[in-house]
Amino acid sequence: MKQTGARHLIDALIAQGCNRIFCVPGESYLAALDALADRKDAIELIVCRHEASAANMAEAHGKLTGRPGVCFVTRGPGATQAAVGVHTAQQDSTPMLLLVGQVRREDEGREAFQELDYNKAFDGIAKLGFEIRDAARVPEQMMRAYAAATNGRPGPVVVAFPEDMLRDEVDAEPAAALVEARSEVSDETAREVAEALSAAEKPLVMVGGPGWSHESAKALHGLAEAFDVPVISAFRAKQIMDNTHSHYVGEAGIGCNPELIARMRECDLLLVIGARLGEMTTQSYDLFETPGGAADKLIHVHPGGEELGRVYRPKLAITARPSAFIAALGNFAPQPSDESEWRTAARADYEKWIAPVPVTGDLNPSEIYAMLSEKLGHEAVLTNGAGNFAAWLHRFYQHRCFPSQLAPTSGAMGYGVPAAIAAKLEYPDRPVIGVAGDGDFMMAVAELATAVRYGVNVVFLVFDNGTYGTIRMHQAKTYPGRVSGTELTNPDFKAMAESFGAAGFRVRTTKDFEAAFDKALGCGKPALIHIIQSLEDIAPGKRLSEMES
Questions:
Q1: What CATH number does residue 133 fall under?
Q2: Are residues 146 and 32 in the same domain?
Q3: CA nearest 237: which of 405, 392, 350, 384?
Q4: How far apart are CA 378 and CA 387, in angstroms?
Q5: According to a count of CB atoms within 10 Å of the terminal CB, is the N or C end of the chain lower?
């Protein structure tokens, strides 16, 4: 049966398992919007207020599910505004599809209204970009897009559709689901790693990156116990291991525990599973000398072979997804032995590191996150964008389950609010907390309307210190006493939330937070807590005035 390219496209998305699309509408893909009107039973359409947020929601969906999050935007300005979400997906190795309307084929190359060469525009920030010009090849080409987004190191794929192609009526081979590529580890390789772990006196396991599941994260706990090895998480990957587990010993990232950095340098075996060993995880690549500083002790496991040896030369490189590697290694796990002093000392360092710290103001974020860790238990998902406010969250909040963390390794502001909405849509019965700073929050504030429209009952925590905190901190250290370009004038966030139809609260002291949070969590609609924080407490254990003196 003949049907439009747009209907072939929607059929292809459904065949690949897509059940939700995030979008900002545009005339360049009206035919696709029309085709979606007939498939509301299969695909939920979430209409956003800004393309950056729509792309961030799709990226967050991909992180949570392991399947490509899908975002539809219009040509030109729509695509360029969505680019920040594509860049985040690239740096986080997140499967994602950005689907973009394009000008008519007959007008291409004339710099027509909003025309853009998407291959050039997204070169370097997307894993793949291409245009589908023949409606009969839509099912085939969408399978290609899904394969590129999910196989090897996952990432974002940008696909453009000329608007006249979407209206063409053609026959096409029916769409079918992509067969997932296998990732297998031989017994010989798994045995070699197991023997190395057992023989090491000071081993460390680092986990991060894509390809994890609830099952593989759970299996990791058993392996850590069997080998009695301390486990650290890469930057923004705390959710992979229960932070309260006796074998979890901290996060390698910004503001890392100095004791943990020393331990990473001291270890005689470093087994890295899934992490790329990027700049933040390796302390600006100074953790070991490049490229051979860890060659005698590094075993690196990653789904993308191109990442192995990219910066550091390993003594053993394994191309595999974390889930496949964990399963293979489990076949050679020893019986648990006596506790090692190396591991227990590492855990003690971590517990000391996450103890709340004193502050100068009336509100102490470290105490708030310690309380939330107890209150929220195993179920909550926490999201954040970028800023010094996040340093308190990532140091003092303890994640208990997978998945439970959405945070951009790219350091993108404006991510936490849309990510929280995507998380609540995926897990409507779990508490979802979107954490933001005042500068970070204002970059996505319009999505409060999206949360209210779809009844997405997220609790947003907005920490307000009246400045772009991270930049202000660096400014104080580099140019003390010379404040320039970092001060902010903010609205009444409580009143703003209420004007959108959400619940609004304001707290100024630590002791007032828990009551406000309980009300926000139980109010039955999206809620925002405006949290007034002292600028002097610029980061955990750091005073702004001391930096400037």
A1: 3.40.50.970
A2: yes
A3: 405
A4: 26
A5: N
Domain that holds residue 361: 355-548
Question: Taking a C-beta distance cutoff of 8 angstroms, is the pair 199, 263 a contact?
Answer: no
What is the rounded distance in angstroms from the CA atom of residue 32 to the CA atom of residue 101?
A: 9
The Cα–Cα gap between 412 and 443 comes to: 10
Is 181 contained in some domain?
no
For residue 535, count CB atoms less than 10 angstroms from its CB and return exposed for 0-12, middle for 13-18, buried for 19 or more.
middle
Least Cα distance to 151 among 89, 66, 84 occurs for 66
Query: What is the C-alpha separation between 79 and 2, in angstroms, rounded?
Result: 30
Give how many domains the chain has, as a whole number.
3
Distance CA 269, CA 264 (A): 9
- Please tell me whether residues 403 and 318 are part of one structural domain: no
Distance set, CA 323 to CA 161, 366, 500 (Å): 35, 33, 42
- Asked if residue 291 has a cis previous peptide bond (ω within 30° of 0), the answer is yes
Long-range contacts of 174-178 (CB under 8 A, 24+ apart): 174/11, 174/15, 174/139, 175/8, 175/11, 175/12, 175/14, 175/15, 175/16, 175/138, 175/139, 175/142, 175/143, 176/15, 176/139, 176/143, 177/15, 177/16, 177/17, 178/16, 178/143, 178/146, 178/147, 178/150
The pLDDT assigned to 106 comes to 82
Q: Which residues of the chain, if any, have pLDDT below 50?
A: none
Length reported for the chain: 549
pLDDT score for 107: 79
Residues 6 or more apart from 531 whose CB is under 8 A from it?
Answer: 363, 461, 462, 463, 464, 506, 507, 513
CA distance 414 to 81: 12
pLDDT in tens, 327-364: 999 999 998 877 899 999 999 999 999 999 999 999 99
Question: Where would I find the H helices in 377-468?
Answer: 389-396, 416-426, 438-442, 448-453
Asked if 383 and 291 touch (Cβ cutoff 8 Å), the reply is no
Measured CA to CA, the distance from residue 78 to residue 238 in angstroms comes to 33
pTM of the model: 0.96
User: Domain check: are 91 and 205 in the same one?
Assistant: no
Q: Could you tell me if 45 and 18 are in contact, meaning their C-beta atoms sit under 8 angstroms apart? A: no
DSSP string computed for 7-55: HHHHHHHHHTT--EEEE---GGGHHHHHHHHTTTTT-EEEE-S-HHHHH
Return the closest-CA partner of residue 67 out of 4, 147, 12, 132: 147
Range 294-313 burial, b when 16+ CB lie within 10 A, else e: beebbbbbbbbeebbeeebb
Q: What is the pLDDT of residue 119?
A: 86
